[in-house]
């Protein structure tokens, strides 16, 4: 696996826009890297490899950030803590067209909160939705849960949209750094 000093992890269900968001942000062509399953306790086959999207973005101050897209399928969830190790934050993407977008958000938040306390949420596919869900359900739910993660409605194909999420994570890191 490629090592990068700073990294951000993209999570979310298949089709939510992880690969597309990384492609929008990355200065290099997005690579599909492979990680080896070393967690034999939960997954018997030592040789299982897992596809991870990898891109890189260089910020204005020259800091390079590795962008890692996690595989969405639950059978690969053993790899999430490995990818998240040392990450400065995670971006959770939720497809607004999903049958149960709030349940998905809850489940990903619950999981990734174990790996990082810096999470930003992107609700995708808002442009092509004809779902019965209203856009207000997400913020209402976050407030009810007493959660303060930044949430944006984005189109993962647009760089400026993906940048909103990236900047939210980086700002949180800087704020915490200053107040530490
Ligand atoms: N209309 C629309 N299409 C999107 C959006 N985000 C991603 N897509 C498209 O949805 C498909 C799945 O996205 P992809 O990044 O491969 O999903 P992944 O499985 O999370 O990596 C691709 O064809 C994307 O171009 C969005 O916000 N709006
Ligand atoms: Mg993908």
From TrEMBL:
Signal peptide positions on this chain: none
Pfam families: Ras
Source species, domain of life: Bacteria
Coiled coil location: none
InterPro entries associated with the record: Gliding_Motility_GTPase, P-loop_NTPase, Small_GTPase
Gene Ontology MF term list: GTP binding; GTPase activity
Protein name listed in UniProt: GTP-binding protein
